Automatic annotation (TrEMBL):
The keyword Transferase applies. Keywords: Glycosyltransferase, Ligase, Phosphoprotein, Pyridine nucleotide biosynthesis, Transferase. This is Nicotinate phosphoribosyltransferase. Catalyzes the synthesis of beta-nicotinate D-ribonucleotide from nicotinate and 5-phospho-D-ribose 1-phosphate at the expense of ATP. SUPFAM superfamilies: Nicotinate/Quinolinate PRTase C-terminal domain-like, Nicotinate/Quinolinate PRTase N-terminal domain-like. InterPro entries: N/Namide_PRibTrfase, NAPRTase_N, Nic_PRibTrfase, Nic_PRibTrfase-Fam, Nicotinate_pribotase-like_C. One of its GO terms (biological process) is NAD+ biosynthetic process via the salvage pathway. GO terms for molecular function: glycosyltransferase activity; nicotinate phosphoribosyltransferase activity. It comes from Cupriavidus agavae.
Length: 392
């Protein structure tokens, strides 16, 4: 089995799932898979992916895992009680070769949001590991170790001692075992410069800090669940604040483009949230504009955290650190470049929510190729409502 624990996923899946249980337990959603690599044929692996999916759906949370979740101050006891009864159900997922016939596969997840939200991360990890163990049956682990140490050594200089990074690489990891080795190497080499990992299973296993708040799917779903489309971003942030009462205070800034985020992220939210996460567009421009926005709202930027998490590698982390150090608090989440860099081209695969309660939903990313929606009419309407130019 590739996935051996239901905790082998990102923390923000649990934090969002708790909001779903308490606020949107009846919501129905649909997710779609996409591989952005040209010419990659995944169809030979469909049966193997299905077999791993079946194994995933046999898993249950153990008492020790539930106790671990219960120990987090922002996780509520009724949610843990629900997880004690929970399991993933195969009936909500369809994996099949695409009708396009170009080596693509279709993965569709459809059902209650509460019962489908935990599929995304393990399914992506399964697709990755199946693909790489079939195409690279004898991987060059020594090359992977060399690359990793070379990167991490860049941070082990006196002027970067307070530059901390975290592992955000579960969904696109080369394998489960490789992610674990990477994490242990990071802890050995970086010491306190390793902030933690988004992977709850490895955080628990190795006494690391689990990290994460919200993902795009939460803000996307609020397009269908909120009172009015134009207010959906504000609605999502206010609901989050009601649920967590000051915990998990990092807002995601690019679901509707950064301009629309800044329009909605007013003085109230500037003070209420601890910081903001960058996930698309130019990170340097984003950081400068975010700090200026705090200053314009009479909030000291040095009291707020900017988290960078978009396709980071260590040299870019250092560039961003040098630009923004001493001007605000900083954190960096590095994913694929840490957990899938052995010399092979990583898969650029995603699973995104495309519908909620029968209505199309979408993300208007600041990186246009990240936008994903199966309804061009709705996408055009969303751009109009949030005043986002075509091409985003």
């Amino acid at each position: 089995m590739i996935i051996r624990s239901l905790l082998d996923t990102d923390l923000y899946k649990f934090t969002m799932m708790q909001v779903v249980l308490h606020h949107f337990p009846q919501a129905q959603v649909e997710y779609k898979f996409k591989c952005r690599n040209a010419g990659v044929d995944l169809t030979p692996y469909v049966d193997e992916i299905r077999a791993e999916l079946a194994s995933l759906c046999q898993l249950r949370f153990t008492d020790d895992e539930l106790d671990y979740l219960r120990g987090m101050r922002f996780i509520k006891s009724d949610f843990v009680d629900f997880l004690a009864l929970f399991h993933l159900n195969e009936k909500y997922v369809v994996v099949q070769p695409s009708a396009s016939g170009h080596g693509e596969i279709d993965i569709t997840i459809r059902g209650p949001w509460l019962h489908t939200i935990l599929f995304e991360i393990p399914l992506l990890a399964i697709v990755n590991e199946v693909y790489f163990r079939r195409t690279q049956p004898q991987p060059d682990l020594q090359e992977g170790r060399r690359r990793l140490e070379e990167k991490l050594d860049l941070l082990k200089v006196p002027q970067y001692t307070d530059c901390v990074i975290a592992d955000y690489g579960t969904r696109r990891r080369f394998s489960r075992d490789w992610q674990e080795e990477v994490l242990l190497s990071m802890r050995r080499i970086l010491g306190p410069q390793l902030a933690g990992t988004s992977n709850v299973h490895f955080a628990r296993l190795h006494n690391m800090t689990p990290l994460g708040t919200m993902a795009h799917e939460y803000l996307q779903a609020c397009q269908a669940l909120g009172p009015r489309l134009r207010d959906s971003q504000v609605y999502a942030l206010e609901n989050w604040a009601r649920e967590y009462r000051g915990d998990l205070g990092i807002a995601l800034s690019d679901t509707y483009g950064f301009d629309a985020f800044l329009r909605d992220f007013d003085l109230y939210f500037c003070k209420l949230f601890d910081g903001v996460r960058h996930d698309s567009g130019d990170p340097f421009e984003w950081g400068e504009r975010m700090l200026a926005h705090y200053a314009a709202n009479r909030v000291d930027p040095r009291s707020k955290t900017l988290i960078f998490s978009d396709a980071l590698h260590i040299p870019k982390v250092i560039e961003l650190y040098e630009r923004f150090r001493h001007r605000c608090k900083l954190a960096f989440g590095v994913g694929t470049n840490l957990t899938n860099d052995l010399g092979y081209t990583p898969l650029q695969i995603v699973i995104k929510m495309v519908r909620c309660n029968g209505q199309p939903v979408a993300k208007l990313s600041d990186t246009p190729e990240k936008t994903m929606c199966d309804d061009p009419g709705y996408l055009s309407y969303l751009r109009q409502v949030f005043e986002v130019k075509a091409g985003h």
